[in-house]
């Protein structure tokens, strides 16, 4: 069974992370599948919006650590880099329905979404520093811009998690709903009924002021991330994480 499910309904493409037994931890093949789906959707006139969601109780536990350690994404053409490029440059509305844990990239990808609906159980976290790494997906630029420097610094430097109410207060999430997927789909369908070129132009204008800055920061983050991944500090942090997980 595919680890990324896709379905198209009235102009809305739903992409579902489908690895619930692993809390939807993302592997290289899942990143590659997501990048392809987003790039194909960008050029498909029949697709007016994309909605990201997940099977099971959690959005995603972030990167699959074992897959990550075995195949570190250190090159510009890695599957992770392809996905980050696709989400940065996606020209159409991108929505997300989040429940349970949204760890690491599970939170940072939301900074590129136009509308995020979250369930009451959602927990967001970006524990990059805790793993000996640095923020990615342009989050070191986008997150402090969204929430203010000190709140961003505290969250990045402690690795602490925050709930849906805090995410709404920060502007990361637009609404809380016990059925985030149904709520997000309703908005997506509404958007899909709008004049499509006007929507694309509106998103381009909304993103125009930051796009090049985010792209430059993403590149710098990726280079430092790749170096950090191969550091002794990160290896120790990963091993500590894996041993905790095994208990």
Relative helix content: 40-55%
Largest sheet: 6 strands, mixed
Q: CATH fold name, please?
A: 2-enoyl-CoA Hydratase, Chain A, domain 1
The strand order across the widest sheet is 1-2-3-4-6-9
Number of helices: 10
Number of structural units classed as domains: 1
Architecture per CATH nomenclature, i.e. the level-2 architecture: Alpha-Beta Complex
Radius of gyration equals: 17 Å
Describe the model.
- There is one protein chain.
- By secondary structure, this protein is an alpha/beta fold.
- It has one domain (4-180): 2-enoyl-CoA Hydratase, Chain A, domain 1 (Alpha-Beta Complex).
- The chain has helices at 28-42, 65-70, 79-89, 105-108, 139-147, 149-158, 164-170, 180-192, 196-229, 232-246; strands at 4-9, 12-17, 49-54, 94-98, 101-103, 115-118, 123-125, 162-163, 175-176.
- It has a six-stranded mixed sheet with strand order 1-2-3-4-6-9, sandwiched between helices. The protein has a three-stranded mixed sheet with strand order 5-7-8.
- Helix 1 runs parallel beside helix 3 (79-89), helix 3 runs antiparallel to helix 9 (196-229) and helix 5 (139-147) crosses helix 6 (149-158).
- The radius of gyration is 17 Å and the shape is globular.
- The two termini are 29 Å apart.
- The mean pLDDT is 93.
Q: Quick summary of this structure?
A:
This protein is of the alpha/beta class and about 250 residues long.
Task: Spell out the key features of this protein.
single chain; 247 residues; alpha/beta; 2-enoyl-CoA Hydratase, Chain A, domain 1; six-stranded mixed β-sheet; three-stranded mixed β-sheet; 9 strands; ECH/Chromodomain_protein; Enoyl-CoA hydratase; isomerase; Enoyl-CoA_hydra/iso
């Amino acid at each position: 069974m595919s680890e990324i499910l896709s379905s198209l309904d009235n102009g809305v493409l739903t992409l579902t992370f489908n690895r619930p037994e692993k809390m939807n931890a993302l592997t290289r093949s899942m990143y590659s599948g997501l990048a392809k789906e987003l790039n194909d959707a960008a050029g498909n006139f029949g697709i007016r919006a994309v909605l990201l969601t997940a099977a099971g109780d959690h959005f995603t536990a972030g990167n699959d650590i074992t897959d990550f350690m075995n195949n570190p994404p250190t090159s510009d053409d890695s599957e992770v880099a392809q996905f980050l490029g696709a989400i940065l440059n996606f020209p159409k509305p991108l929505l997300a329905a989040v429940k349970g844990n949204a760890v690491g990239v599970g939170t940072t990808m939301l900074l590129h979404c136009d509308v995020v609906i979250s369930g009451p159980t959602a927990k967001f976290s970006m524990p990059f520093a805790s793993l000996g790494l640095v923020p990615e997906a342009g989050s070191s630029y986008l997150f402090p811009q969204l929430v203010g420097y000190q709140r961003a610094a505290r969250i990045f430097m402690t690795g602490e998690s925050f709930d849906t109410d805090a995410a709404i207060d920060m502007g990361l999430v637009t609404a809380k709903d016990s059925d985030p997927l149904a709520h997000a789909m309703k908005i997506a369908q509404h958007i899909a009924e709008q004049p499509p070129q006007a929507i694309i132009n509106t998103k381009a204008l909304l993103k125009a002021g930051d796009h090049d800055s985010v792209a430059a920061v993403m590149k710098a983050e990726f280079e430092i991330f790749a170096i950090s991944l191969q550091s002794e500090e990160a290896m120790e942090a990963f091993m500590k994480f894996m041993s905790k997980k095994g208990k």
